[in-house]
UniProtKB/TrEMBL annotation:
<dbReference type="Pfam" id="PF11842">
    <property type="entry name" value="DUF3362"/>
</dbReference>
<comment type="similarity">
    <text>Belongs to the UPF0313 family.</text>
</comment>
<feature type="domain" description="Radical SAM core">
    <location>
        <begin position="375"/>
        <end position="651"/>
    </location>
</feature>
<feature type="region of interest" description="Disordered">
    <location>
        <begin position="244"/>
        <end position="265"/>
    </location>
</feature>
<keyword id="KW-0411">Iron-sulfur</keyword>
<feature type="binding site">
    <location>
        <position position="393"/>
    </location>
    <ligand>
        <name>[4Fe-4S] cluster</name>
    </ligand>
</feature>
<dbReference type="Pfam" id="PF08497">
    <property type="entry name" value="Radical_SAM_N"/>
</dbReference>
<dbReference type="InterPro" id="IPR024560">
    <property type="entry name" value="UPF0313_C"/>
</dbReference>
<feature type="compositionally biased region" description="Basic and acidic residues">
    <location>
        <begin position="244"/>
        <end position="258"/>
    </location>
</feature>
<protein>
    <submittedName>
        <fullName>YgiQ family radical SAM protein</fullName>
    </submittedName>
</protein>
<dbReference type="Pfam" id="PF04055">
    <property type="entry name" value="Radical_SAM"/>
</dbReference>
<dbReference type="InterPro" id="IPR020612">
    <property type="entry name" value="Methylthiotransferase_CS"/>
</dbReference>
<dbReference type="GO" id="GO:0003824">
    <property type="term" value="F:catalytic activity"/>
</dbReference>
<keyword id="KW-0408">Iron</keyword>
<dbReference type="GO" id="GO:0005506">
    <property type="term" value="F:iron ion binding"/>
</dbReference>
<keyword id="KW-0004">4Fe-4S</keyword>
<feature type="region of interest" description="Disordered">
    <location>
        <begin position="685"/>
        <end position="735"/>
    </location>
</feature>
Length: 735
């Protein structure tokens, strides 16, 4: 990879615009107060505007402001007409459109396709402030408001829907959002590099339709278009063949040659000198050839009707995701192509610092008054120390969006942000709620050799085992924790982000540091399952790593004189999961005194590899063909509810469906009223016999009963109390 241009090395667009705005303006009145007659860039977002680096539009807006551009925000506009999109006038350069920090369909709907009762990114949690498929709707309205304005789309909804993708909510493969949104260009992943260069080039007068060379971008192109002479096209089905593989002809087979195959003038062999190249020259030639090769994926019309081709396309896209060796991709959508340039190059540490050190107000825009914004309440005392994840979990969208290469901030930058929280964030009492990121303990971890990293095509650095080339040294993170705790006014630093425990056990010193100082009594970790079948489809480690971490956790807790407990997270109905797998997990939970209050059912997110398994019932972790491994897929609503019920075997609402399933599976021996049974023989009258969710609890008495009262009655019939009491009591008893 060639060294990219530093984010902060561009000349300022407006040399006289150097004073940051208190907040990026959301109204004409705010623009006038700043002395603006227009905005260079107008950012449209589906979230409430909170001026904090955890919120995409604030980070993007402040970055462009730093470059000398005037940036306005249109937050959660009324999408029923174009009028709200005219609130700040026509942008001089472009509309930047995003659905918000989450894909809008995931934000609005549960895994059961029911509308969520709360939108965490909206004032007072109002669930009706954004439309379905918000990115497309907003982009179309922006175009309607000002037909001659440029439209740029980005953020996670754009990233996850940049090519043809399976959409769980409509249960079909949908087109890329590019043709539907009518956008001029799409930015995917962490797009700071592309965004800054794109904005400066448009400001310099370059037409947006001619900007086709930026990494991390996608755009519509005429069929067969190439960036320049010398480019070649490789059909993805040639080097990763889906369907039945035809036998290659035997080169040693003796066949009678046609007359034309003899040495006539037309077929005469041309003698050429043999050129001997050094290893370095051969590698350079291959890199040059690769950099000018585009891989053609099966077309939208092909993948929408053929699940095997869809799984193949998903596999190829993920294999072409390392910025060090990824090739451009192209996919036909009707008579035009969606062209995807290779992924963006990761930010260097000083660039990460610059992005997070910008003058954020670190609070919601004053327009929201005293409204409660759940996402803000959750993150306002937390600090993001890194980006990316090399875990490669197939159900997770982090890899598709942020990539596998970890981008870390420097220690001084992180410590400065902690001091800013202490000094400027209202309500701070001395506790940092999280010092983490997508994965809490991947800070500054990377491949031991940059050349190996750039050539690697593994889908995960830690599955099926931790790569020998991965540096697992946690010493820099330990040092960061210690310095953060030493800041005056800081009473407690918690780590609440997800923990990769198979990495943590490689550093007992880290586990000791974490357990002794950074756990608030309960630590969340995610084994996701106990059985090898589903774990292999998730690309998650087996339970051996969990037990090793658990032993360390409990030992170091005892040494610290603290009573602390692990809270495991599990997924129901993931591809590759059978009824027997869920039953075995339920037995494991009961054996270990776990009773889960919150559980999740697998939600197929656009472009994830597990989603390809769900849709096509094929495993894209390996080459896909008609004869390749079939994946057990739970699609029927009743079976999905059953798998979820196994995780909450202790809930009386689930006893009827579990009894029916256990009888069908030949496991009636698990039905009874003793401790060795999973569910009781009958539902007591106090709980009723309804299988409707929530009905058993409601029938205990009028109103919503207290958890303590409910568990007291449940306990009489063989069900244990909730995890928060049962695990604690069991541990105390063991002592």
């Amino acid at each position: 990879m060639n060294a990219p241009k530093n984010l902060f090395s561009y000349p300022r667009h407006r040399a006289d615009y150097t004073t940051p705005a208190p907040f990026l303006p959301m109204s004409r009145a705010e623009m006038e107060a700043l002395g603006w007659d227009s905005c260079d860039v107008i950012l449209v977002t589906g979230d409430a505007y909170i001026d904090h680096p955890s919120f995409g539009m604030a980070l993007v807006g402040r970055l462009l402001e730093k470059q000398g551009f005037r940036v306005g925000i249109i937050s959660q506009p009324d999408w029923h007409s174009a009028e709200a999109f005219r609130a700040l006038g026509r942008p001089n350069l472009y509309f930047g459109v995003t659905a918000g920090n989450m894909d809008s369909m995931i934000n609005r709907y549960t895994s059961d396709r029911k509308i969520r009762s709360e939108d965490a990114y909206t004032a007072d949690g109002d669930p009706n402030k954004r439309p379905d498929r918000a990115l497309v709707v907003y982009a179309q309205r922006a175009r309607e408001a000002y037909p001659d304005a440029n439209v740029v789309v980005g953020s996670i909804e754009a990233s996850l829907r940049r090519i043809a993708h399976y959409d769980y909510w409509s249960d079909k493969v949908r087109r890329s959002v590019l043709p539907d949104s009518k956008a001029d260009i799409l930015l995917y992943g962490n797009a700071e590099r592309a965004l800054v260069e794109l904005t400066h080039r448009i400001a310099a007068g370059e037409p947006i339709k001619s900007i086709r060379d930026l990494r991390g971008t996608a755009f519509m192109a005429p069929s067969g278009w190439k960036p320049a002479d010398g480019w070649t096209e490789a059909n993805s089905t040639r080097y990763d063949t889906p369907g039945r593989v035809e036998a290659h002809p035997d080169p040693y087979e003796m066949k009678q040659k046609e007359p034309a195959s003899c040495g006539t003038a037309e077929t005469a062999v041309v003698e050429r000198p043999v050129v001997i190249l050094s290893r370095e020259e051969r590698q350079a030639a291959l890199r040059e050839q690769r950099s000018k090769t585009v891989v053609r994926l099966p077309s939208y019309d092909a993948v929408k009707d053929d699940p095997i081709l869809y799984a193949h396309a998903s596999r190829v896209l993920h294999l072409e995701s390392n910025p060090g060796n990824a090739r451009a991709l192209v996919q036909a959508h009707g008579e035009r192509d969606v062209w995807l340039n290779p992924p963006p190059l990761p930010l260097a540490m000083d660039e990460m610092d610059g992005v997070y050190d910008m003058p954020y107000a670190r609070s919601p825009h004053p327009a929201y008054g005293k409204a409660h914004i759940p996402a803000w309440e959750m993150i306002r005392f937390s600090v993001n120390i890194m980006r990316g994840c090399f875990g490669g979990c197939t159900f997770c969208s982090i890899t598709e969006h942020e990539g596998r290469i970890i981008q870390s901030r420097s220690e001084p930058s992180i410590l400065r942000e902690i001091e800013l929280i202490r000094d400027k964030t209202k309500g701070f009492t001395g506790t940092i709620s999280d010092l983490g990121g997508p994965t809490a303990n991947m800070y500054r971890l990377a491949c031991k050799d940059k050349k190996i990293e750039e050539s690697c095509r593994r889908l995960s650095c830690v599955y099926p085992s931790i790569c020998v080339n991965l540096n697992t040294d946690h010493s820099k993170l330990i040092q960061l924790y210690r310095k953060a705790r030493a800041i005056p006014g800081i009473k407690k630093i918690l780590v609440s982000s997800g923990l990769r425990y198979d990495l943590a056990v490689k550093s007992p010193e880290y586990v000791k540091e974490l357990v002794t100082h950074h756990v608030g009594g309960l630590l969340k970790i995610a084994p996701e399952h106990s059985e090898d079948g589903p774990l292999s489809k998730m690309m998650k480690p087996g339970m051996g790593s969990y037990y090793a971490f658990k032993e360390m956790f409990e030992r170091f807790s005892r040494e610290a004189g603290k009573e602390q407990y692990l809270i495991p997270y599990f997924i129901a109905a993931h591809p590759g999961t059978t009824d027997e797998d869920m039953l075995n997990l339920a037995i494991w939970l009961k054996k270990n005194n776990f009773q889960l209050d919150q559980v999740q059912t697998f939600l197929p997110t656009p472009m994830a590899m597990a989603t390809a398994m769900y849709h096509g019932r094929k495993n894209p972790l390996h080459k896909v063909s008609a004869d390749s491994e079939a994946v057990e897929t739970v699609r029927a609503g009743k079976i999905r509810r059953l798998h979820k019920a196994f995780l909450r075997y202790h809930d009386p609402d689930n006893w009827p469906i579990l009894r029916e399933a256990l009888q069908r599976m030949g496991r009636s021996d698990l039905i009874g009223n003793s401790d060795r049974h999973l569910v009781p023989r009958y539902t007591p009258p106090a709980f009723g016999a309804s299988t409707q969710p929530g009905q058993a609890r409601k029938q205990i008495g009028s109103g919503t009963p207290s958890r303590k009262a409910f568990d007291a009655k449940a306990g009489k019939f063989g069900a244990r109390p909730s995890y928060k009491t049962s695990a604690v009591k069991a541990a105390r008893k063991a002592k």
